[in-house]
């Protein structure tokens, strides 16, 4: 049987190769817009934006203007009097106390959870796993249920009305969540990397320093942001375990704008706006790692 090349005339061009048929959507066809997602996103934007607008707009009003007009109407003559009143009061001291409590709590939680999670992730023994399970029971115990024992412990340790009285319980109740997030993250590290470090002669501390810490930065950032949010907005422990103005934090300092016969709402909202700015900036910096750290280990 004659082939195609043999049947072709001398000097004729070779036959063209067949075109490949592309499968998929037809050319020039656009995807349909997801109207439902757009509507839900717009509704969520309104839900978030309206309170923020009210917070900032009302803080730029005088008390008379706030009481005589609707809070959602744009203010004609914004004033910074409320912010001046807040800054000239004890806001600086409250802010400093809040920073000390937040930084110290984050430092304690990170320093405890990193080596503890490394031990749990690398040790499959029953004793370690049982201790880990006992630690996770703290997720189901609310702080309100233990406030009386915590108060008695703080008074017996002579720490009442000090910043340590806020730092220690806040860090203790943040440990279960932080340990869970950190452990799941360290379990995602391939075991081959641990074995390679061990074959190179690295001990447990060297592995923790040179392998775990660099690879666990997203989880550490997640734990730090989550703990900082809870410590910054803490109210129960400062209310019960402190008393004087020198140890007052921002959540208690907002009470200064509540009088016997009324509340200075614009001044209160100005203080709230100033107290939100630092933690909002911290959230923007660490938001990339927050979701990835919280979902670490759940894909296995």
- Tell the overall outline: globular
Helix percentage: 55-70%
Largest sheet: none
Which percent band covers the strand fraction? under 5%
Poorly predicted runs: 1-8
Number of strands: 0
Mean pLDDT comes to 81
* Secondary-structure class: mainly alpha
End-to-end Cα distance, whole Å, is 60 Å
Sequence of secondary-structure elements = HHHHHHHHHHHHHH
Instruction: Please tell me how large the radius of gyration is.
Output: 30 Å
Number of helices: 14
What is this structure, in a nutshell?
With 300 residues, the chain is an all-alpha fold. Helix content is 66%, strand content 0%.
Summarize the helices and strands and which ones pair or pack.
Blueprint: H1 4-7, H2 35-59, H3 63-68, H4 81-88, H5 91-122, H6 126-136, H7 147-156, H8 164-187, H9 191-199, H10 204-215, H11 217-232, H12 236-241, H13 250-253, H14 265-294
Helix pairs in contact: 2-14, 4-14, 5-8, 5-11, 8-11, 9-10, 11-14
Detailed description of the structure:
With 300 residues, this protein is mainly alpha-helical. It is built from 14 helices and no strands. The radius of gyration is 30 Å and the shape is globular. The chain starts with a helix and ends in a 6-residue tail after the last helix. The N terminus is likely disordered.
């Amino acid at each position: 049987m004659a082939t195609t090349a043999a049947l072709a005339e001398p000097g004729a061009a070779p036959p063209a190769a067949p075109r490949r048929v592309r499968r998929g959507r037809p050319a020039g066809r656009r995807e349909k817009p997801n109207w439902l997602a757009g509507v839900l996103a717009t509704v969520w934007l309104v839900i978030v934006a309206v309170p923020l607008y009210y917070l900032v707009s009302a803080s730029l009003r005088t008390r008379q203007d706030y009481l005589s007009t609707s809070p959602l109407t744009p203010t004609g003559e914004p004033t910074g009097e409320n912010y001046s009143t807040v800054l000239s009061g004890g806001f600086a001291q409250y802010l400093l106390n809040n920073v000390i409590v937040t930084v110290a709590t984050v430092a304690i939680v990170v320093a405890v959870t990193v080596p503890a999670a490394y031990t749990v992730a690398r040790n499959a023994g029953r004793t370690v796993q049982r201790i880990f399970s006992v630690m996770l029971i703290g997720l189901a115990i609310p702080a309100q249920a233990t406030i009386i024992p915590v108060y008695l412990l703080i008074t017996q340790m002579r720490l009442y009305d000090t910043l340590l009285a806020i730092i220690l319980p806040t860090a203790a109740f943040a440990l279960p969540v932080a340990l869970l997030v950190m452990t799941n993250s360290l379990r995602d590290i391939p075991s081959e990397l641990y074995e390679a470090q061990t074959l190179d002669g690295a001990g447990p501390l060297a592995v923790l320093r040179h392998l775990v810490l660099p690879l666990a930065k997203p989880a550490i950032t997640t734990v730090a942001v989550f703990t900082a949010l809870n410590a910054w907005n803490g109210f129960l422990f400062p209310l019960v375990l402190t008393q004087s103005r020198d140890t007052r934090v921002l959540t208690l300092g907002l009470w200064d704008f509540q009088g016997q016969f009324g509340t200075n709402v614009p001044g209160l909202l100005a203080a709230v706006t100033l107290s939100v700015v630092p933690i909002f900036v911290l959230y923007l910096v660490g938001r990339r790692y927050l979701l990835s750290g919280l979902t670490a280990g759940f894909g296995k």
